[in-house]
Amino acid sequence: MRDSTATVIAAGTGFSRVLLVNGVGITTLTPTTKVMAHLPLALMDHRPDNVLVICFGMGTTFRSALSWGVHVTAVDLVPSVPKLLWYYHADAPELLHSPLAHVVIDDGRRYLDRTSDKFDLITIDPPPPLSAAGSSLLYSREFYTVAKKHLKPHGILEQWLPSYSGDPFLRSSIAQAIKLSFTHVRAFRSIEGWGVHLMASDWPIPERTSQDLAGKLSANATRDFIEWGPATTPVGQFDILLNNEFNVDNIVAASSLAPVMRDDRPTNEYFAVRYLRYLFTHQ
């Protein structure tokens, strides 16, 4: 599909299906994108009512959030991307026609600047690669300042931080921005062992056991959470995540000289020297 913003391609079969925007691979069918909804919602100390998903992708996080029976708003810059939900999920018509679902075509940052709505969860999976032009506006200190204004009391922001870039400088810059912006930050390695889920809030994020977290899921949410594994039970899924929690300071310490990511200092977009150094030192 081609629209005013981009050329979008959906291709492949089964778990090999891909989504490309202007030739760039955006995401895959992965349980990691389910965790972006289920983990923060299960961690909450209250019953959530509404969720904001920034960046639609294949719609997996949007779909997982809806399995909680809450209002879900999904924002994506590219009009054609949500139209391809059917290619990745057979229940797309049901999801898109749900009275709980709302899909907005807009830039995620601009949407937050203009809306007055507040959310229990804001979950963000910025478009890859980490060095993409403009993506700093979804990782910066100023972005988190805006996002905080749209979190309800005890709300959580979930930030996905991929780890394939080989650039600890960049990951440190992003981690510093979120640490400076929120009183409480918890970090979990992904259920597949790559990338990090950062959970941030100005209220304490409850410490819960896997059994406690699993008990928060409804029957629909449980089915969605274990649909693609790797564990066969919600307790098993949460065990993997809780056993791989670590201190966010470890990300910062990996490159202590990195500056804080800011709108006017987009360290991710000025990466060439760091990237070339990484290539030469890992040959």
What's the SSE blueprint?
Layout: E1 8-11, E2 18-21, E3 24-27, H1 31-43, E4 50-54, H2 60-66, E5 71-76, H3 80-83, H4 85-88, H5 92-96, E6 101-105, H6 108-114, E7 119-124, H7 141-148, E8 151-161, H8 168-181, E9 184-189, E10 196-201, H9 210-215, H10 219-226, H11 234-242, E11 245-246, H12 249-253, H13 272-281
Parallel strand pairs: 4-5, 4-7, 5-6, 7-8
Antiparallel strand pairs: 1-2, 2-3, 8-10, 9-10, 9-11
Helix pairs in contact: 1-2, 1-10, 7-8
Which CATH first-tier class would you pick? Alpha Beta
Which segments are poorly predicted (pLDDT under 50) over 5 or more consecutive residues?
Answer: none
* Cross-sheet strand order for the largest sheet: 6-5-4-7-8-10-9-11
What shape does the CA trace take? globular
Main beta sheet: strand number and arrangement? Answer: 8 strands, mixed
